[in-house]
Design brief:
about 0% strand, about 100 residues, mainly alpha, rod-shaped
């Protein structure tokens, strides 16, 4: 059976993604705070930003779960194929009359 290559994100990529998220969230929050509008509009925009953030986390989790489930199915199929190929002997002579 062939071992799949482990796809692990690097620390630098993780830090870049976390910093990008943090900076964008901070910038949007500052923009909402200093926006020259009433408090009701500001509160609505802040709530909208919170909704976008929680929705993006949920979507990322769903995408990750779907990718992991298809990867497991792919590994099982590959293991079955490897087992069949390992057990197959093309030079084996079958005794008896074929149907």
């Amino acid at each position: 059976m062939t071992a799949p290559v482990a796809r692990k994100t690097t620390t630098a990529f993780f830090v870049q993604a976390a910093l990008s998220f943090g900076i964008s969230l901070f910038a949007a929050s500052v923009a909402i705070v200093y926006l020259p509008v009433g408090s009701w509009i500001r509160a609505f925009l802040a709530l909208s930003l919170l909704y976008v953030v929680t929705s993006s986390f949920t979507l990322a989790k769903c995408v990750r779960d779907h990718q992991e489930s298809t990867e497991v199915v792919s590994r099982v199929d590959q293991a079955r194929l490897d087992k069949l190929l390992a057990e197959h002997d093309p030079f084996k002579v079958h005794a008896g009359i074929p149907d």
